[in-house]
């Protein structure tokens, strides 16, 4: 809007003052809104960064557990290899019945009054 100061000096002054105030208020409101959004964004960003840091800590802990587990596995495989190497070559599986089976047979014979050896 343009004012014509020649027509009315007072109306021109009032118009300039009113529009100046409107511009300042709009600018202030816009700035305030902009700054509010920035502060909210920083707050959100901080919250998400904290979440990311906690996730990184959990991941680090899991990696440490996986590392220990893989080392335990490697140690176990070494023990198994060394144990297998200490067995005599050409070892064959036992042809005898498992101990639990022999024990059960012995109990059965004893219950019937027979000697375990017979």
TrEMBL record:
Residues 58-118 are annotated as: Disordered. This is CsbD family protein. It comes from Streptomyces haneummycinicus.
